[in-house]
Amino acid sequence: MKFSGAGLVAILGIALLGLLPLVAPPYYVSLMVPFFGYAIALLGFNLLFGYTGLLSFGHAMFLGFGAYGAAIVAGVLGIKSFEAVIVVVALASMLAALPIGYFCVRYTGIFFGMLTLAFGMLFHSFLFKFYHLTGGDSGMRVPRMNILGLEFAKYNKIEFLSGPFYYYCLALLVLAGLLMWRLVHSPFGLHLKTIRDNARKAEYLGVHVHRCRLAAFVISAGFGAIGGAILGFRIGLADPELVYWTQSGQLVFMAVLGGFSNFFGPIIGALTYTLLQDQLQSLTQYWRFVLGAVLALIVIGFPSGIAGLVTGLRARMQRGAA
Fold first, then answer.
1. Is 181 exposed, middle or buried (0-12, 13-18, 19+ CB in 10 A)?
2. Which of 243, 262, 271, 240 is CA-nearest to residue 309?
3. H or E segment at 191?
4. Lower CB count within 10 Å: N or C terminus of the chain?
5. What is the average per-residue pLDDT within 35-41?
6. What does DSSP assign to residue 13?
């Protein structure tokens, strides 16, 4: 069986992540759980941004759908199966994304971005003000759940996050990556890229532009909700800050940092951001300033992000060897 260069890189990355719990302290292993959540959410975000050309400034609302959905399904309804929670929050988020996307995808550029930001802030205000339903600024507790029908009761929280749940999230990321890879390399994915490059020409070719944009919006919402459920499970809380506009900006930051024009770019961005943020927070209280400077340097010097930089270096080495 032959693998492409991208396939070999993916297999190597999965193998390294699989070995991490064997060589790294539990703290750094559990630190990878939010990376998995953001990486899955960014796969969906990049379907909208990198492949369809629609930059959402309010995409964190779907993280909130996932986290609050997990709190309601597991905490209020008492369904403690994480698989059931994932299915429910993904479907609920996609259902909610239908009317939101219907209005948003009628616009492009800054108008689309500002409209998604408006919906995101409306949802944040709802979570913040309706205290009797959402817990207001205190949020809602996300209880510990079973995975694959197993409770893992003998594990404390750190052991659970850095052991069974770590591998569970790794498997989820692999499945989500395979699904998204198949999606963007299907005729539907080609339609999205055509719409991104020239919507008018795509329409002349018979592509249903609004339907395809809406489908991409709804699918990205499902991925966002799964990522949000993982983030809520990790900290045990669904907090309104998770859907604040700064969180949406963080998703954009990760996508740009890793390179939104590359399939693996957002995943690389999520990993780099998670590690960079952790290290900077331990070094200085001005870590946001440093992150902003890093983003400015990336945008100015390497507009294709880290993935684009690596691809460019490899192409230069191949030309030099030829």
1. middle
2. 262
3. helix 187-197
4. N
5. 94
6. H
